[in-house]
Amino acid sequence: MSTETLHADIAACRVCETALGFAPRPVVQFSSTSRILIIGQAPGSKVHASGIPWDDASGDRLREWTGLNRDQMYDAQQVALVPMGFCYPGKASGGDRPPRPECAPLWHERVLAALPDDRLTLLVGSYAQAANLPETRGWTMARRVEHWLETDGAAFDGAIPLPHPAWRSTLFMRKHPWFEADLLPRLRARIASRLDLA
Description:
The protein is α/β, with parallel strands linked by helices. Helix content is 43%, strand content 10%. It contains 10 helices and 6 strands; from the N terminus they run ααβαααβββαβααβαα. It starts with a helix and ends with a helix.
């Protein structure tokens, strides 16, 4: 299946429409040459409105963490943006609902099969990590992230776990100063190397 056909099939997906109670708007970005894969959570209301992944304050912070500018992040030839749920899941008390459970089992295997084998994967937030790092069930976010740092990236087959860059991440960074001082420079260096930006 071509990536164009896969994109069209995803755009036409309405599997969760009844559960959502509003029209789905799948938001995903990838190509057969994307060497960076960022697996996030699910689009928020701003992304649902614009149709652009990470088009919000969390995206600004993620770009700061990764060293990617907007042009680089939104270049599908370089970067795949694949959330656990492709559609905005709606509001819940205290924030958005979790990603719809139908989405990843339906689409992730097909999308990931279209990407290069030598991609660098970033697992942003607990939903992405729970699905892709089942061996860390019961671990805290800090333990996952610090374990990657302590093993110099050898843990998790090279996949890099990161907290979700929502406003609450400032609390994480304040409590764990090694994240900004030690992990982010390594993260940026790996991304730059993979994209030949160094």
